[in-house]
Amino acid sequence: xxxxxxxxxxxxxxxxxxxxxxxxxxxxxxxxxxxxxxxxxxxxxxxxxxxxxxxxxxxxxxxxxxxxxxxxxxxxxxxxxxxxxxxxxxxxxxxxxxxxxxxxxxxxxxxxxxxxxxxxxxxxxxxxxxxxxxxxxxxxxxxxxxxxxxxxxxxxxxxxxxxxxxxxxxxxxxxxxxxxxxxxxxxxxxxxxxxxxxxxxxxxxxxxxxxxxxxxxxxxxxxxxxxxxxxxxxxxxxxxxxxxxxxxxxxxxxxxxxxxxxxxxxxxxxxxxxxxxxxxxxxxxxxxxxxxxxxxxxxxxxxxxxxxxxxxxxxxxxxxxxxxxxxxxxxxxxxxxxxxxxxxxxxxxxxxxxxxxxxxxxxxxxxxxxxxxxxxxxxxxxxxxxxxxxxxxxxxxxxxxxxxxxxxxxxxxxxxxxxxxxxx
Length: 424
Prior knowledge:
The structure is a single chain. By secondary structure, the chain is mainly alpha-helical. It has one domain (2-412). 66% of the residues lie in helices and 3% in strands. It has helices spanning 6-31, 35-45, 49-70, 90-106, 111-119, 123-140, 150-159, 172-180, 184-204, 207-211, 213-235, 247-252, 254-257, 268-271, 281-291, 301-319, 331-350, 357-364, 368-394, 400-410, and strands at residues 2-3, 87-88, 164-165, 237-240, 243-246. It has a 3-stranded mixed sheet. It has a two-stranded antiparallel ribbon with strand order 2-3. The radius of gyration is 22 Å and the shape is globular.
């Protein structure tokens, strides 16, 4: 997809993003695709239906990205965020994932679900969105306007020590390929195929899941949407006398290509990189876009995806007559959502993504860090749900420590002899 001008190419880049984000918003609302709900169903009812839908979305995306790379239609070495970065920030992945999992449980949904709920009339989620957006903006500084980010000031000094510099990108194909002296692209095909086969067998061996039209449809469509975003952002180019330039290449040569700064996006060297859906840092981009007076120079893939998902959810809620204005039912409900928003804001940035951004988009790149964040999110959410449940049932008898230890026993992370409360 090559265009004769940067303006045309950027317009396609943004409008294609809006369209597929709109579809995502409508489909997720319609099918109740919810990653926190997936964890809740599994922990509280033993129902893995929505968890299978989540894994199906990640598997479809992984298959698509593997094929795109094999065909030379995607180059994911440099992406936003840097999923395959050679600095393996294991401490950041685990801490961010756990904080995000706890936060999404308190806030009644992940980043994507927050946007879906806003579109459906939930005012509580607007508060959560604003908190996440504010934190994400100052943690990331998406438009390079701050002297230093909160991450650089308060987290990098100690989380940086919990990092490992690799000789290769951190995806399974590159790491294993380097160990066995096989081309990374070939190894991605092999490993991606094996992961997909194992995942699909797990997903579709459930007859109940196979009969659930919404779960199957949501998993497939969300996965395809992630693939489309990778494809569009990787293949939108500008035709010049010297050949086709990617948007980031053209941006780096702006002074040579253009006569003025008019139409130049803010921090395009980062914001125009190949990318797909994630929702925490993009909320920060939306905050920056609004703070800049909605200047087109601050309009990014992330910001427009936020608006697209909200509008898609809103239109579906009107069509299905499910639009309902919902407010906090108590002060406890209010501060629980506030705490959830704070934890998701910090956790989503530290983990370089949310349940969609790492659990689906990141997994599609086969980055090791994405799998770690995925597991950490599930652990953080499941642990929080179990603690809440024990404290609700046992009330004063269930101190936090007793509920926490018992929850770890339930999750097979501690021996049963350490159980503090009877199983329920």
